[in-house]
From TrEMBL:
Keyword list, A-Z: Signal
Pfam families for this protein: DUF885
InterPro entries reported in the protein's UniProt record: DUF885 (IPR010281)
Source organism of this protein record: Marilutibacter chinensis
Name of the protein: DUF885 domain-containing protein
Signal peptide: 1-37
Amino acid sequence: MPDPMTRRPGRTSRTPVPGWSALACACALSLALSAVADEGADARMKALAERAVALGLEEEPIAGYVLGLPLKDHAHWSPRAPEDIARIDAAEDAMLAELETIDRDALGTAALKLDHALLTERLESQKGLRVCRPELWDVNHMGGWPVMLARYARFQPVATAVEREQALERWSALPAFVDQEIANLRQGLDLGYSAPRSVVERVIGQVDGLATASVADSPLSGPAGRSDDSEFRTAFEAVIRDRVNPALARYRDFLRDEYMAEARTELGVSANPDGEACYDASLRGYTTLDRGAREVHELGAKAVAANMAEIAGMGEKLYGTDDFAEILERVREAPDNGFSSEAELIDYSREVVARSREASRKLFLALPEQEMKVEPFPDFMRGSGASAHYEAAADPTQPAYYRIDSEGWASETRGSAEITAVHEGFPGHHMQLAFAFTQDKTPLAQLSFNSAYAEGWGRYAERLAEEAGIYSNDYAKIQRRAWPARGMVADTGLHVLGWSREKTVEYLKETGRFGPDETEALADRMAMLPGQLTAYDSGALEIVALREQAEAALGDRFDLRLFHEEVLRHGNVPMQVLRANVEAWIAGTQQVADGKTSAAP
């Protein structure tokens, strides 16, 4: 999965935006505009997009570093005080009201039309997600602020005297940020909101790892190590030792001694006030699709049944049995499908990344040159239940990272390691995101994100890797089919349909994909990212359907590399926009082949 940059899920609307086909046609084929552009509307749209980007970067400065968007300064954390949240909500409402007065069809360029659509999605989604009150229960081992501190330390600029001064200002202010977080969580408890107790335990471990690390070993000391200014190095290390670490210890103690006892034991977000409404908003935000929880659950169950039928056929050929559980047990227990050490798992994953990069050349017109390194988690995250993930870097001269939870090597399989490596690397997230950074997009398009597109591509890449012959044996082919779509079933079951933790864990264990500890961690992950796990296969099913539609329409004229180019070149877009883009590309390809128009640039 891509590393989460925000704690709010998605940037999407509740209702479809009209005119998607016309928008995609303009984006994909550069057709002549049907109306004269309104220059006033163009200027207003540009100004509104700039305001939205500035507000988004104020909310989550880390997004600026990851996405290569310029920040006003480098001295602040995300604003988390109630008055700041109210101010941001009011600013978003004002922007949405103004946006509704701009006629999208009057805009003069495809980029502005796309910005209008993306901003409508973003603002309506943010408004809908307010029902969740995420600031009141943000204790999150997946993408909570303690995890993100290491990312801030990695990107904090210190090249100039001004930047070094801002670095000291930001990190000196962390105690005030921590105090605000504690106040928010106390208010949440008073109002009936909390994170699950099992998640709180995981976060305590992460925070303790940061708080007790020596300054020399702390991942938060990175800015000092990157500077030649000895005075700054001394001052920054003192801030970490005397201000940051004590503040983190105070937060750890609050969670352990006060919050834990009052945290909910139920995993489902329905245990919080307005929990089912929160799940609906989150599901829509992550998937960008108009599907309710029960529809998603049923669609996932059908996909799981189809996958199990394929596994039964494979098991009959390989092992002489069609029993699902027996097949997966044979796979997991195969002597040549395990690892003898953590180092072996890491080395093997690096080899798979290198191999899959070469094999992916036939799948795309060109591969990004940016390096992706495979590295284990930093010490403070080890054993905390965080998932393997991809960390992007907008600067192509800097490496991206596939962070692997290698501490679970004893229960990992080679097949599963291959699947994860292609999901995070080639032809998965690194191909997707490193390629996107090379495309010309507006700042708002760079900032826009939804999980269905990102994780849908990652899941599609797992299938693509099999087509490209990347998997070295049948273990990965079987395990690849055992897990997909179960997130659609388990996530909705946990949050809406009343599944217990025990029922959820047992359902996940049936896949044979994860060991006991990983399965428990996966349940806690679902608890803190309600709806997100449905996005993988919701998005993948859409991409597969679009490919099948293109293959049927174009026949011999279908070029897989050009299809992938069309899916990826616009960046992270909602599923409706993706469908409109691909359908416009299909129509344009047919017209070019028929000699009715020229090829799109």
